[in-house]
Write a structure and sequence with these properties.
By secondary structure, this protein is of the alpha/beta class. It folds into four domains: 3-120, Rossmann fold; 144-306, P-loop containing nucleotide triphosphate hydrolases (Rossmann fold); 310-380, Helicase, Ruva Protein, domain 3; 388-458, no CATH class. It is built from 20 helices and 14 strands. α4 (85-93) links the parallel β4 (75-80) and β5 (98-101). α2 packs parallel to α3. The termini are far apart. It binds adenosine-5'-triphosphate and magnesium ion. Adenosine-5'-triphosphate binds at residues 137, 139-141, 167, 169-175, 280, 320, 323, 356-357, 360.
């Protein structure tokens, strides 16, 4: 019979686990604090431990660490009523099998236990490093989707695996990249963010890889690139969809062999950099269109964290609102207490195209204006009249109409062998006109990456 140790200072919790699991034939033993848990584990050798995080004497996370040091193979499930990103991340980092947020229903617990015990048969011992200090910003979220993300951060942070963060703009990819770094072994080494779309293409190669003296006109001195500057550290490569094709090949080599050549150089430079990447573009489509290397795509796709848009995790809204109110209370020396229930309701109905960043902006604006205890609709200029995406939609609509009119004036779609690509050609030209030739803005307007835009322009 499988023996399960339940550790919780609340007697009621231990009792209900005994009842539920006992009925299914498990032998349940209990402990009321961390020290007793360690003692009972020694004596009784349970197959699985379910343990609360907040406990007297020795708290759950510390007990988890000690138990794992003594019994690396032991399967431990943590649970807590006050779930925070930190606790979930730390629990997973210390080697918890999973993390449950109270309240949970019985069937959820039973199926998790069954899965854990089945996995137990095939576990490979893993050792876990010492605890690392955390100085990161808070990531707010208690929705199941965010809890999954916290777990993943905990699972990947200790290793050097390359992580790909995907999600719409403003969902928190930057924040997650930093959280991975803050929980990693490389915390005392540099963290270097590089935004591929913010650096002009002509400079990107030398920015990343450096150059030798005389490599090109104006290269008066040898220059060390970001990959070398960041040795032993963590690089956060943002907007990787905007990395030009020739650089993708060079980057793939860094990922595979850990080496590269400076621009204009022959010497192979070794580098030891942990890479975290992010994008909000459709990489699969780019691979299909030949603007993103397939081998690089597969190399990056090993650990992907999908950050869901705010509209798909509205149970996080209230916590986020309160977090931002507290943040701006501190920054603006105010003492706003909250927002009206009406406003929170209408937040829930809104589709948040700019995600958490948009919410933060609205609260910030409201807090600057607010003279009372509660944020009002007037303070926040809520609901938003024209959001940036609505504007974009308007622009795109205008573009489409213009392009269609031009096509029709020329004699209708039918006279073209390939009407769609002709239409696209006019559309891209019109978009470029509208942005005065700014490729970054044009790509944004059309909802494509700068690389895809370039490939379309190259066809002309
Ligand atoms: N879960 C969260 N808790 C607290 N703050 C958050 C959360 N998610 C995002 N934010 C805040 O929202 C803002 C936008 O987040 P971030 O810059 O991480 O988004 P992003 O996904 O990197 O966006 P982009 O694709 O535009 O670069 C930041 O100020 C960040 O601190
Ligand atoms: Mg970002």
């Amino acid at each position: 019979m499988n023996k399960i140790l339940v550790v919780d200072d609340e007697k009621g919790v231990c009792h209900s686990f005994k009842k539920i699991l006992g009925r299914r034939g498990y032998d349940v033993i209990t402990a009321e604090d961390g020290l007793e848990a360690i003692e009972k584990t020694e004596k009784e050798d349970p197959a699985l431990v379910i343990m609360d995080v907040t406990m007297p004497k020795l708290d759950g996370l510390e007990t988890l660490q000690r138990l794992k040091a003594l019994h690396p193979d032991l399967t431990i499930i943590m649970m807590t009523a006050h779930s925070t990103s930190e606790k979930a991340i730390t629990a997973m980092k210390y080697g918890a099998y999973d993390y449950l947020s109270k309240p949970f229903d019985n069937s959820q617990v039973i199926s998790l236990i069954e899965k854990a015990l089945a996995d137990n048969q095939m576990t490979i011992p893993v050792t876990f490093a010492e605890t690392t200090d955390d100085k990161g910003d808070k990531i707010i979220g208690k929705s199941p989707a965010m809890l999954d993300i916290f777990k993943k951060i905990g699972q990947v942070s200790e290793s050097d695996v390359t992580v790909l963060l995907r999600g719409e703009t403003g969902t928190g990819k930057d924040l997650i990249a930093r959280a991975i770094y803050h929980h990693s072994k490389r915390l005392n080494k540099p963290f270097l963010p590089v935004n591929c779309s913010a650096i002009p293409e002509t400079l990107l190669e030398s920015e990343l890889f450096g150059h030798e003296k005389g490599a090109f006109t104006g290269a008066d001195m040898k220059r060390i690139g970001k990959f070398e500057q960041c040795t032993s550290g963590t690089m956060f490569l943002d907007e990787i969809g905007d990395m030009p094709l020739p650089l993708q090949a060079k980057w793939l080599r860094v990922l595979q062999d850990g080496c590269f050549q400076r621009v204009g150089g022959k010497e192979l430079v070794k580098t030891d950099v942990r890479i975290i990447t992010a994008t909000n573009t459709n990489l699969e489509q780019m691979v299909e269109q030949g603007t993103f290397r397939e081998d690089l795509y597969w190399r990056l796709n090993v650990v992907t964290v999908l950050v869901p848009p705010l509209r798909e995790r509205k149970d996080d809204l209230e916590n986020l609102v309160h977090y931002f109110i507290q943040k701006y209370n501190r920054e603006l020396s105010k003492s706003v207490k909250g927002i009206s229930p009406d406003m929170l309701n209408s937040f829930t109905e809104y589709h948040w195209p700019g995600n958490v960043r948009e919410l933060q902006g609205i609260i910030h604006r409201g807090m600057v204006m607010c003279q009372k205890d509660f944020l009002s609709i007037e303070d926040c200029e809520w609901p938003p009249q024209i959001t940036s995406t609505d504007e974009k939609d308007g622009d795109v609509e205008r573009l489409l109409t213009d392009a269609a009119n031009i096509l029709m004036k020329r004699g209708g779609v039918n006279i073209y062998k390939n009407g769609v690509s002709e239409f696209e050609h006019i559309l891209v030209k019109k978009a470029l006109e509208m942005t005065n030739g700014n490729q970054v803005l044009t790509a944004k307007l059309l909802g494509i990456s700068r690389n895809t835009l370039r490939s379309k322009l190259d066809k002309d």
